[in-house]
Amino acid sequence: MSGRDHLVVKSSRPASQPQRPLLSLLAALTGFVIVLAPWLVAREQARHSFPGFIFGEQPTATAPEPYCAVSKLNAQSAQQKAHSATIATLSDGTLAAAWYAGRAEGASDVTIQFSRRDTAGVWSEPRTIFDRAGVAESLRRHVVSLGNPVLLSGADGKLGLLFVSISAGKWSGSSINTSWSADGGTTWSAPEKLCLNPLANLSALPRNPPSRLVGGGWAVPIYEEFIGRYPEILWLQPWNGGYSAAVSRMRGGMIMFQPSIVPVSADSALAFYRDDSGSGRAALSRSFDSGRTWSQPEASLLPNFDSGVCGLRLPDGRLICALNDAKNRKRENLRLALSPDDGKSWQVIATLEEEPGAEFSYPYMIIGNNGRVQMVYSALGHEVRYAEFNVAWIDQQLARAGRGIGP
Amino acid sequence: MMTCAFWWSVAGLWLLLVWGWQRIPLLRGPAGFIFAMAFSGVLSVVPFFGHPLRYWLSGLTPNISVPLVVMVAAAIASRGGLLRVFRAREWSAAWMFGACAAVLLYPSALGLGPRNFDSYALGWPWLFWAASLALFGLVALSASWLLWRGNRFGWVLVAAAIAYLVPVQESRNFWDYLVDPLYAVVSIVAALRLLLLRWRGR
Q1: Residues B1 and B38 in one domain
Q2: By Cβ atoms counted within 10 A, which residue in A94, A126, A138, A388 is the most buried?
Q3: Chain B nearest C-alpha distance from A240 (Å)
């Protein structure tokens, strides 16, 4: 292909003068129109890009009594690592959770675990819904390991799952797959790979909750972790009976990642970032055009040393953020901070976990159908814990807490 | 289910293997050509360290671009004495296009340059519709310019757009139909060599 005959530069006749001008002109025009056709065809679909966030559908808290309970989701598990849990409300109001578990991060025995909470409030025994060999067979490609599940609960009653499969190396060699369940997680469709990166489709990971979009799609915060770390948004939009996938980049490349997006109105949102720069604080940025563009992330008043954070808007409009703020830069605690003014000021109001030498990380929060905060997180390396609390409990913690962090 | 994307990747790997075998002097000639085609077909499907070779390749490069497939097919046909589809100027255009596409795409995807801009996003025309005209318009102009000059590589770009409309790959991003990492690396080397030859020829 690169032989000497292919590198001859000069042709036998002047190339700028077509032999048959009319035919050449026709070919040129035909080529121009055909290449431009995909762009023209996409016009209708483009009308639905950035449709805005579904906002104001959150159920309001009803119980005036403070409530907070913490339990384990994988109490019987013998696996040495359980991490990156996700939770979603199903169409019947019950909850589902998923996480990855195995010998270690990136190990070949890592599986995606799934559990459902019934109407009586009891979580089912976790079961494996995807393993490495099954995913490799479905995707028809080599898979080293699995990780980072994120559940998507749709208005059509379908439950979706995003998770990564690692093709080579560790997290930088990962790509995102989708699978769907029409029966609340009992059975799942064969996973399909999303092509989101031109460099061998490597390095895209979800971590935090998706935001529902007008029209039935989702804005899923994801990040790249290849040469640099980049916060991005995966736009999943219903199209032709399936979903179209596309990625837009957020600001803050190289140091900001694992974004957590919190819509604060139909077209504006706040993003929390894990900051890799050593600033010791979580970063925040804002979008005022339905997530299309984002402001440059700025260090917030939230203390956080390069660990996963998750933000959430409460039914009453206040914001909470779950984070690690241990001064020794380890993940020995898990706290909640509250902001009454869209992230301008913060007050650490509660400590959910604290134990020297232990690790509590990767909080993931949503609002349940009962108006309570539903939270899952990793504990002690091998446990996935579930916390449920209401606004009355948050107010109680606020009343007990000291001075806030604010301007 | 054997999708179009499945067969595209099978065909891509098969062609690359055939082209590789053709480089071996012993396998030149009709018999060697038939052997190369058959043996490449076997290698594409027979498990190799637990998976067919295609699984290993797909794990790293799921989308083989249209120009690479056409170029490899053209090289095989030419070397096998079947048909000379690409002349010198088609090869030159292919290398220059691949190098330009690689320079426009990969640094941005790696985060070099403006850090909130990713040129790869222009390949999803429904996301940033107006901005993606820059990509589609540039490729359309390149194709029509090449076709006006009687350069057959222009038809390869047209084929890439048709393949995108079908679609023949897993990816729905137009960039993946135009360029891939293998084509990019080879193109940059070949384009630099071309430019050097031109510079020396002056």
Answers
A1: yes
A2: A126
A3: 13
What's the pTM? 0.91
Tell me the residue range of the domain where B188 lies.
85-201
Q: Alpha-carbon distance B11 to B18, whole Å?
A: 10
Model pLDDT, residue A329: 78
pLDDT digits (tens, 9 = 90+) for A263-282: 999 999 999 999 988 888 99
Domain at A316, CATH number: 2.120.10.10
Backbone angles phi, psi at A319, to 5 degrees: -110, 140
What distances in angstroms separate CA A2 from CA A363, B95, B187, B190, one per listed residue?
53, 10, 10, 7
Rounded to whole angstroms, what are the CA distances from A261 to A45, A231, A323, B45? 24, 11, 15, 44
Joined tokens for residue B115: 């850090």
CB-based contact (8 Å) between A250 and chain B?
yes
pLDDT reading at A25 higher than 50: yes
Record: contact B111-A39, CB cut-off 8 A: no
Average pLDDT of every residue of chain A:
89
A232 to chain B: closest CA residue: B116
Rg (CA), chain A: 24
**Full residue range of the structural domain in which residue A342 is found:** 53-400
The helix (run of H) or strand (run of E) holding residue A45 is helix A43-46
Which segment, A308-322, B79-93, B106-120, is predicted with the most confidence on average?
Answer: A308-322
Query: What is the ipTM metric for this complex?
Result: 0.90
The reply to whether A19 falls in a domain is no
Q: What is the DSSP letter of A346?
A: B
Q: Is the pLDDT of residue A4 over 50?
A: no
Residues B6 and B103 in one domain: no
Interface of A with B in 253-312 (CB under 8 A): 253-254, 293-294
Quote the tokens at residue B152: 């057959």
A332 within some domain:
yes
Question: What's the total number of domains in chain B?
Answer: 2
Domain identity same for B121 and B192: yes
Structure-token pair, residue A112 = 């995606």
Would you say residue A62 lies in a domain? Answer: yes
If contacts are CB pairs under 8 Å, which of residues 47-86 in chain B contact chain A? 51, 54-56, 58-63, 71-72, 75, 86
Alpha carbon distance B121, B109 (integer Å): 9
Whether B70 maps to a domain, the answer reads no
In a domain, B69, yes or no: no
Between positions 310 and 369 of A, the ones with CB within 8 A of B are none
Whether B171 and B179 have beta carbons less than 8 Å apart is answered as no
Per-window interface: B 88-107 vs A, CB < 8 A = 88-89, 91-92, 105-106
- Identify whether residues B105 and B156 lie together within a single domain: yes
Euclidean distance between CA atoms A131 and A172, whole angstroms: 20
Q: Could you tell me if A307 and A314 are in contact, meaning their C-beta atoms sit under 8 angstroms apart?
A: no
Residue A394 lies in a domain: yes
Q: Which two tokens stand for residue A374?
A: 């539903």
Q: In a 3-state reduction of DSSP, which class is residue A150?
A: strand
The residues, any chain, with a CB within 8 Å of residue A141's CB and separated by 6 or more, are A167, A193, B51, B55, B56, B58, B59, B62
In this structure, are residues A277 and A235 in contact, taking their beta carbons and an 8 Å threshold? no
Q: Is the peptide bond before B67 cis (omega within 30 degrees of 0)?
A: no
Question: What is the helix (H) or strand (E) element at residue A336, kind and residue range?
Answer: strand A333-339
Backbone angles phi and psi of A397, in degrees to 5: -65, -40
